[in-house]
Amino acid sequence: MKKSLVIAALSAHLTTQLFAGGDIAPVTVNEPVLEEVAHGHHEESKFYVVVAGMMLLGDEIQHGEALLDGDNDYGYGFGIDIGYRLGNGFALEYDYTYGKNTVYEITAHDEVKATSTYHTSALDIVYTYEATHKLGIFGKVGYEFEWEEISELNIDEREDDFVFGAGIEYALNKKYKLLAEYEHSLIEGPHGDAILAGVMYNF
What we know:
The chain has 203 residues and is mainly β.
C-alpha cells in the first residue's frame, strides 16, 4: 500500500512538470543517520597496558620478638598492569609489581639493617568514572599474592589478601594516558603502601 502511494506521488510530480514545460526537479532521498549515543564513556580499545614507577612508603610491623621498621627510607620499584575493558566503566586487570626497600630489625639488644625485596601478582576489578573528556577517576579492588624476601634476616614468606587502589588518569590522545595511583594492601609488610605513576597505552 505504501509503495503504491509513493509511486503514485512520483508519477503525479513527473506529469505535472512535463505538462508545465518545466525541468524535472530531482527527488532527494535522505538516508537514515545513525546517531551516536553517549553513555558517559567515550569509545576506547578493549585492551590496555600500564607501565609505572613505584615509590614504597614503608611501615613498621611486629615479626616475632623483633620490630621490622621500613619507615626510615623510601623504597622503589615498578608495576605492570594488563587490562581488558568490560564496558560501562568496568575493567578486569592483572597486576604485577616488584619493589625493594631498606628495613631495620630492631630488638631489645640490637639493630640490623637489611634489604627487603618483594613481588606481587593480583587480579583486580577496576571502575573508572570519566569526570571530563580527558580526566578519569578510578578505584580498584583485587586479590593479590605476595612473595617477600629479606635474606639478611632469613625471612622468605608467601602471603595473600585483598588489595585496594585509587587514582586518576589523564588522556594525552586516543592511545596514551598519564596515570597516578595510591595502593594499599591488607598484607602487612615493612614496604607499606605504594604510590605509582606511569603511562597507559591503549591497543
